[in-house]
Structure to design on (108 residues):
């Protein structure tokens, strides 16, 4: 079972921008093989750090306006939000260890 919630343009403000915890937003599409390979890595990261972060997913095919608003040019792309602001952006498939290193500031 996924630890990520799907968000839409209607729920993005509440789920991401108003969250009291940092939020990792996974911009993905079901035709994107690297996105599908990345999903279990992100789920494990979210599970391991559920006390520190929330993980949500935005299907860029269903929510093109969100992808455009946040300048998504490649998939998968992660945007990290803290207090409603983007503090980090990562594109491409990564290992769990690499993600933990890149997100160390919000995971510690």
């Amino acid at each position: 079972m996924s630890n990520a919630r799907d968000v839409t343009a209607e729920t993005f403000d509440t789920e991401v921008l108003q969250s009291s915890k940092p939020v990792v937003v996974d911009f993905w599409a079901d035709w994107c093989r690297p996105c599908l390979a990345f999903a279990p890595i992100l789920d494990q990261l979210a599970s391991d750090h559920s006390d520190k972060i929330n993980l949500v997913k935005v299907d860029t095919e269903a929510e093109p306006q969100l992808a455009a608003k946040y300048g998504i040019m490649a998939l998968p792309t992660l945007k990290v939000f803290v207090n409603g602001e983007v503090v980090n952006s990562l594109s491409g498939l990564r290992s769990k260890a690499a993600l933990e290193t890149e997100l160390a500031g919000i995971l510690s």
Summary: Residues 16 and 91 are 19 Å apart (CA to CA). The longest helix spans residues 33-48. The mean pLDDT is 94. The helical segments are 12-17, 33-48, 64-69, 96-102, 104-107.
